[in-house]
């Protein structure tokens, strides 16, 4: 179920905070220079209407902020550890992935770009690469990913993508097969953990292209 949003209209037929997109849309349709934006909570929206549109223009206001109690419950990320992430331009599109030290952001490995890939495949490969890296180096550290899908694929030992193999992405799928083979033939004690983006911000391995 989609989370409820609240809409602020600074300039429109009527200004104020609105609880539905349809109501907001009526205020801005046909209004030259309309200024409006959505917010994750009524409190944030009511605060925003007292300010200026320029203060919020271009900013991500759709994320729900966690309470102090929620932040305390989640805690802080474990360090030292490593973090992995992927970036994909298009779906499918050019994809690359990398791993970094969580505390410093120092890059440990990077692969790609690969043609006609997906972000989920990249996240999966990044995790397996990270697991292999830690095992080869005999480093006992946890590994973070912000992708629940990739974590579940790793636990199942299979990349369950629906992407079709083509001549362009054949090298990528060969890498996927190698990753699946590694998971089948190797054991590891590395904790594979979910990066809590809402509490900690973007994962350190993020490519910064959002």
UniProtKB/TrEMBL annotation:
Catalysed reaction, written as an equation: Endonucleolytic cleavage to 5'-phosphomonoester
Enzyme type, top EC level: hydrolase
Function text: Endonuclease that specifically degrades the RNA of RNA-DNA hybrids.
Domain annotation RNase H type-1: ranges: 76-210
GO biological process assignments: DNA replication, removal of RNA primer
Organism: Aureibaculum marinum
Keyword Nuclease: yes
Full protein name: Ribonuclease H
Any GO MF annotation of the entry: nucleic acid binding
Binding site for Mg(2+) 1: 85, 206
GO cellular component annotations of the record: cytoplasm
Cofactor(s) named in the record: Mn(2+); Mg(2+)
Taxonomic superkingdom: Bacteria
